Amino acid sequence: MKNKRLKHKFLVFLAFLVVIIELFPIFVVISNGFKRDIDIFTSNPFSFKFSLQSYKSVLTDYMFLNSLKNSLIVALISSSFSVLAGAMASYAITRYKFRGKTAIAYSFLTSRMIPQISLSIPLYLMFRNLNMLDNVFSLVLAYISFNVPYIIWLLLPFFASIPREFEEAARVDGCSEKRLFWSIFIPLVAPGLVVAMVFSFIMSWNEFLYALILTNTQARTAPISVNAFMGQYAPQWGQLSAAGTLMLIPAFIITLSLQRFIIKGLTAGGVKG
């Protein structure tokens, strides 16, 4: 009994330790946003001389605000289309019988394994020939290309777990293929769709490499603008931290507001997978 209590206390201590290690970098970024550059270097992370100068500089920077808008547009459009396309593909793979179904499913998985850096040059050449460099919609297309394979495999266990009886009963009642997908399957896999939407949004919101290669000034996204605060001669640590903190806000809001659905979706996916 005593050993069991000691084990429980040790696991609780270990859990708190992991949480502190995970949250410490976020605490440093947020607190540094409210400090002057000189205070960031001359004091420890826990000393605090409150200053809003970094936020005033960032929030009056037109390039940064425009990049936030671009990031929001790209993340919302690419994640919406990715979830739609991924759901349709997962539905087809799990509910229809056709030759090469397994090979097609694994081809999506293989495409997800290709490093982004290997695809960045072909994408750059393709969009240059189409005169679509430094364009928000070229980024949307690029992000859809790496989000869709992930979403297909994320949703496969959700669609596969729905009993055939639901489908057969709907068909007997005269349900069309289109209505079967939208009215029967989509509500049943809703938790998985929420998880896919959140992860897809966060991946698009944080993406750096494609944005660096495919954009310049017009379609620049927030991660590129944050990196620009590194400066040519010396990093502007206060503005860098303030901009990084502002980038955290949408991800926090979406994750916390949909927390219930995310936990439900992940739990259901784990059980069904």
TrEMBL record:
Record-linked InterPro entries: BP-dep_ABC_trans_perm (IPR050901), MetI-like (IPR000515), MetI-like_sf (IPR035906)
Keyword Secreted in annotation: no
Chief site of localization: membrane
TM stretches of this protein: 12-34, 72-93, 105-127, 139-159, 180-202, 237-258
Domain ABC transmembrane type-1 residue range list: 68-258
Topology in membrane: Multi-pass membrane protein
Name of the protein this chain belongs to: Carbohydrate ABC transporter permease
Subcellular location: Cell membrane
Top-rank taxon, per record: Bacteria
UniProt similarity note: Belongs to the binding-protein-dependent transport system permease family.
Record keywords, A-Z: Cell membrane, Membrane, Transmembrane, Transmembrane helix, Transport
Tagged with keyword Acyltransferase: no
